[in-house]
What does this fold into?
Amino acid sequence: MKRWVVFFDAIGLAAFAIQGANYAVSIEAPLIAVIMAATLTGAGGGMIRDIFAGRKPMIFHSEIYALWAAFADIAIGLGSIRGPYATFFLLIVIAFLRILSVYFKWNLPHQHTK
It folds into this structure.
């Protein structure tokens, strides 16, 4: 069951991040605004899901979550991704990286408190 949750969460993260980035690019926002809008859009969907499920949102864990959305945003904001095939490939790459980060337990650096 957890595998399917991670799989669909990864697809949702990638899809929402790409949609947020595409919207920000369509209104000709600067790169930092594209990154912020898409990261918040990508992570926001998962956060709302976790709140409704009564869990601590994944973005507040030390695992890599919003960073993958930011990478997608940078690629779109810099104009590297254009067209439906490139966008679909980006979705697959971001979802795959998210799944790998869960499988291999990749974490962001964090401070251990006593």
Notes: The chain has a mean pLDDT of 88. The two ends are 34 Å apart (CA to CA). The chain has four helices and no strands. Residues 74 and 80 are 9 Å apart (CA to CA).
